Amino acid sequence: MCCVPQVLLGDVGTGKSSLVLRFVRGQFVEFQESTIGAAFFSQTLAVDDATVKFEIWDTAGQERYHSLAPMYYRGAAAAIIVYDITNLVISTNVKLGNKALKLWDSLNIPATFLSSCSDFCASFERAKRWIEELKAQGNSDMVMALAGNKADLLDSKNVETEEAKTYAQENGLFFVETSAKTSSNVNNIFYEIAKRIPRV
Ligand code: GTP
Ligand code: MG
Questions:
Q1: Cα of 177 from ligand 1 centre, angstroms
Q2: Which stretch is the leader sequence (predicted)?
Q3: Are residues 143 and 80 in contact, defined by beta-carbon separation less than 8 angstroms?
């Protein structure tokens, strides 16, 4: 089967590029640069008796690029929506270091504020927004997967597996926790998507 146009969406710094680079090149970069606009990759995968070629648009998570996203998801047969299981990625183009994160924690900002998605938005909430947008404006038969990335950072985990799994089930998505760093479940998520794409 030829060519599965696919898009990755999710908050800044959740690891979209890292997941693609792990899948396509088998690499992981500790200081991956933030994507500008979008980047294109392709990779083939053997699924059962067929070879599937993914044509992947890795979009930029920064809010200023949001308006470009429909260009990439409109023609897509599949989407991976990525959040960070530590959930403390803030949509204001700010990536917080460990010290800043501790300070942020100590401020005790209510979850309702974090989920408001106006100036600040936790990455899991941002993922839900993407899913809503895809359901409203994407292809109706698009295969969607939810990836809880950075699964290696167990000590900092802030999104419960069950919560994400339930949300995914209720919304008809395939869900898996991934780590671009250790490569856990990375091939698996692409494989599961390929299996769900209707054969032509
Ligand atoms: P934008 O392009 O800005 O939207 O970000 P992105 O979603 O492409 O994130 P990117 O792949 O650039 O990763 C952001 C940071 O998270 C980088 O420093 C990565 O090294 C790190 N990172 C990505 N995936 C993982 C992971 O699975 N585990 C850990 N520990 N770090 C990760
Ligand atoms: Mg990126």
A1: 14
A2: none
A3: no
> What burial letters (b/e) apply to 22-48, b meaning 16+ CB within 10 Å?
bbeeeebeeeeeebeebbebebebebe
Count of the separate structural domains present in the chain: 1
Helices and strands in the chain: count of H runs, count of E runs: 7, 6
pTM summary value: 0.88
| Closest protein CA for atom 18 of ligand 1 | 31
ipTM summary value:
0.99
Domain containing residue 14: CATH number = 3.40.50.300
- Separation between Cα atoms, residue 69 and residue 177, nearest integer Å: 24
Q: What is the pLDDT of residues 112-171, one digit of tens each?
A: 455 445 445 589 999 999 999 999 999 999 999 999 999 999 998 989 999 999 999 999
